[in-house]
Amino acid sequence: MFKNIPQVLDAEQLIERALSKTRKIQMTDRNADYRAKKTIIARTESFSTVVTTLLEKYVKDFPSIETLPSFYQELIDIKIDTNKLKKSLGGIDWARKTCQMIYSKQARSLRKTKNVDFLKQKQREIYGRISSVVRQVNKELVLLAKAENIMRRFPDIHDIPTVVIAGYPNVGKSSLLRCLSKAKPKIAQYPFTTKEIHVGHIERKERYEIKRFQLIDTPGLLDRPLEKKNDIEKQAIAALTHLADVIVFILDPSETCGYNLMDQKNLLSQIKKMFKSSVFIIVENKVDFKKTRSKNLKICCETSEGIDAVIDEIFSNYNSNN
Question: Is the separation of the CB atoms in 136 and 164 below 8 Å?
């Protein structure tokens, strides 16, 4: 969905791109004056065309935010700021129209004159005015380039039954995703390892039907009000809000994650209140360190103990979420 977003250049890069293309243009004519005139006109037209075409491409090929699924809309607002992005696109479109107008107003006078020196003067004037307009929207181009870089890395989310893995930082969410699917998220032993959303898939054949779930590993959440959560945590909330059919919530009774079990359970209660329509599967990880007597599923991602039971529980909810 976001792989075709065009690479956005800043003002100086865009101007240099246009100039480098115009330098290659050399028209032919037996008459030296006509040859010079044709070359100047062709180069000036090319410069204007390259600039306006690139600016138009940035605006037209950027995804329309309003038509995106709600999850992506919220992700854009969290990581980029929707209003700033729209303002940048509007500013760039203004620059395109202005550059187009600058050239179109001068094009007739370029073709009418036979004075090469006058043509060169007009060419410099058009180059200067168009370059000035492009530089005026450099901040908008830089922001759009940043947005392009961020959005290209957005996870590819499909409209199929979805399991969102949630819990405190470092409880083993990425490890569970790796155990359940072929996804290979980067894992390290420190809080907030996952700063982005990772996606995997799990499927199995039952009789003549292939049942498939999308698995999403979210950044760690902390037990605090929504308004106090940082942008990393807000990504997790967005995934839970817009995507979760089933929520696998991981607890770490060993507390080797760095957070006590009571705080983890408080977070679970908070999430349950927020997402009453989702199915919850409560899992206790790191049973090789500590195993409680609770009825929650017990797993160890290091040894894959209990993983099959989690898979069975996930697929037992397939029909109600398909």
Answer: no
- Enumerate domains of the chain plus CATH numbers: 11-151 (1.20.120.1190), 162-321 (3.40.50.300)
End-to-end CA distance of the chain: 23
Residues with Cβ < 8 Å from 315, sequence gap 6 or more?
204, 206, 211, 213
- Comparing CA positions, the residue from 150, 119, 135 lying closest to residue 38 is 119
203's tokens = 């499927």
* 184-232 tens-digit pLDDT: 544 433 333 446 678 888 888 877 788 888 898 887 776 665 666 767 6
Q: What whole-number distance in Å separates Cα of residue 308 and Cα of residue 179?
A: 10
Residue that the structure tokens 């306006």 belong to: 52
The answer to whether the pTM exceeds 0.70 is: yes
* Mean pLDDT, range 35-47, rounded to an integer: 88
Angle at 203 between CA 201 and CA 207, to 5 degrees: 170
